[in-house]
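Sat 14:20. Reprocessing the chain from the morning session after the first attempt stalled halfway. Input below, unchanged.
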Amino acid sequence: MFMKKLFLTLTLMVILFLYFINAEEVYKMKSKIHWMGHDCFKITNDKIIYTDPYQLEKEDKADIILITHSHYDHCSADDVKKIQTADTIIVATEDCKKNLTGTIKVVKPGDKLEVKGIKIEAVPAYNIGKKFHPKENNWVGYIFEVNGERIYLAGDTDYIPEMKTFKVDIALLPVSGTYVMTAEEAIKAALDIKPKIAIPMHYGAIVGSISDAEKFEKELKGKIEVKILKKE
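Finished this time. Tokens:
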């Protein structure tokens, strides 16, 4: 009986140790995520990753660019050129190709690939009851892994059933409504996904405002940590 209790105690201690180590790594990763406005993030690590470049104010050098779909505020050729080099690899949906140049890897929901050591999975992103982002277009969000941490970029999407299957550490979720989830729907999505950190996006440019992000943060207080990033 003593040995059994000792074994259980040691097992619990190992689980807690691993949990806190993982949590520490997630919080470190948070400091490497920079919001450039709308759905555009810059993730700084061994590789520089940009998502949906739009209205960029500075030039940069991206290793990887993730583009979720062909709408002008996500697949902006002028903004891509500001951060694209000869070595940049773009991951995008088929309909983006006509607007872009360089090395492009085309994806659809369900595809998995590895680019410059970064594991990337394309996941569904679509509207329910709205016509802006039809499911049949095969537009995407992304789950990509940086330093062992899984980051989910939702793309332009509503609260969809597939979210319940996602296992991620950090979730970047739209909150503006109109073309994507409302703040209330994004709260439901976050509770389904259960990330360690949720970061609101898709506000302050086309539609939505900081109040949407603040509502998202307020309703998740004590349930999921929310970080509202300042635009850089």
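Helices lie at 2-30, 77-83, 183-193, 210-220.
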